[in-house]
């Protein structure tokens, strides 16, 4: 039998890291990456991502993704504001969807379902990452084929989510990110490969342009990206560089005139 979750979790910092260019020396991203690659192997899935969320704002910070598809699945849920990972976080229980084309998924997540199937993702398994009384975020696994998890695979997913929770709670810098999610303007770790700090900066600029709240600014930014079929990181970069302004949408969805 291959490595257990505990084997991966307890590896020494000097061992090679996987994907994402994380530095050696016990970095959080490297540690989370090790658990993610172990989760993919033990659950026979095709990709994995870890995201931190906040119960008090719509902010969402991607910590790690094993591949481009996993990153796209996470970003899609961030943009449209729906999906199994968000439900797993809100209900604090696993949401296991072995067939994203099954009846009911499109009704439950109308914007997300069509887009994720178009990416070639046909099954999603979301496990809340346990924290001190409430989830810190979600471990997101996906398959490119339909099919449920076996009992052993589901237990492995739960164990990996728990291992990541221990990593997050023991890392002061990343806990600062989790705290800052309640005030996106304070998000740290902007140099991280997966950080959405630029997105939160852009949403603040949108809020000013449209004379709306910070949460509404983020919602309007996400809506613009979805309507125009553009990655949110790309749009955010254009807004921060002042190549794009959403000021002409000021009166849409209740923005105050002026």
From TrEMBL:
Residues 8-21 have a biased composition (Basic and acidic residues). Transmembrane segments: none annotated. This is GAF domain-containing protein. It comes from the Bacteria. Pfam families: GAF_2. InterPro entries: GAF (IPR003018), GAF-like_dom_sf (IPR029016). It comes from Nocardia neocaledoniensis. SMART domains: GAF. Residues 27-178 form the GAF domain. Residues 1-24 are annotated as: Disordered.
């Amino acid at each position: 039998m291959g490595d257990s979750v505990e084997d991966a979790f307890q590896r020494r910092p000097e061992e090679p890291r996987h994907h994402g260019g994380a530095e050696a020396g016990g970095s959080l991203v490297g540690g989370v990456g090790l658990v993610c690659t172990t989760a993919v192997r033990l659950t026979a899935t095709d990709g994995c991502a870890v995201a931190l969320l906040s119960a008090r704002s719509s902010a969402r910070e991607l910590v790690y993704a094993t591949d481009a598809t996993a990153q796209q699945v996470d970003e899609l849920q961030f943009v449209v504001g729906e999906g199994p990972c968000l439900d797993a976080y809100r209900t604090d229980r696993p949401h296991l969807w072995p067939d994203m084309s099954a009846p009911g998924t499109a009704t439950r997540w109308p914007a997300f379902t069509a887009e994720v199937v178009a990416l070639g993702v046909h099954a999603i398994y979301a496990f809340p990452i346990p924290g001190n009384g409430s989830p810190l975020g979600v471990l997101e696994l996906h398959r490119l084929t339909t099919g449920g998890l076996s009992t052993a695979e589901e237990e492995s997913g739960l164990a990996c989510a728990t291992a990541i929770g221990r990593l997050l709670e023991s890392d002061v810098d990343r806990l600062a990110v989790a705290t800052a999610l309640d005030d996106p303007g304070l998000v740290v770790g902007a140099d991280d490969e997966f950080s959405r700090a630029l997105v939160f900066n852009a949403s603040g600029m949108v809020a000013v342009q449209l004379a709306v709240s910070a949460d509404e600014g983020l919602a309007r930014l996400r809506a613009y990206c979805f309507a125009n079929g553009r990655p949110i990181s790309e749009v955010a970069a254009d807004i921060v560089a002042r190549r794009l302004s959403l000021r002409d949408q000021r009166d849409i969805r209740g923005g105050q005139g002026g």
